[in-house]
Amino acid sequence: MPLHADYRTRTPIADELLTSREIFLSKLVYQTYNGYVMSQFKKLEQDLRASGEIKWKHAMHLIRLLLEGVTILRDGYVPVRITEHRGTLLSIRDGCMKWDEVNTWRLALHREFEEAFRVTKLPDEPDYAEANRLLIKARRSAVGGASA
Q: How confident is the model at residue 6 (pLDDT cuts 50, 70, 90)?
C-alpha cells in the first residue's frame, strides 16, 4: 500500500489514521462508485442526445472514478493521483477524445471493475467500530479534548 510522501504536517493521530486506513475500505466501494458512475454516464448520454453536447470535464471525472474503483478493489488503497492515465484524462477533459472512444474505455473499465470486485480481498463492510473509535479520537485530538 503506497503512502504519499508529501505531507506537510504529520501528527500522531494522522499517522494512526494513515496506518489504519484499510479499515475504511470494503466491497461497498463497488456499489458506491459503480452506481454513481453508471447513473452519471446515462445523464451524459441523455445530454448528448438532447443537445449534442457533452460535459467533458464531468466525463473525465467519471472515468477517473472508475480507475480509482478498480485500484481500490484490486490493491486495497485509494489512489490520490492517477498519473499513468493523466494525458488521456486531460484529452477527455479538453474534448479531444471522441465520445465513442470515451464510451468504449468506460465499458472496458466497467468490465475491469466487475472483475476486480469478483476477486477483491476487501471485506464485505468497513470495520465500523474501529473506524468510529479512530474518528472520535481524531476529532477529540483536533479540538484539544481527551484522547479516546
A: low
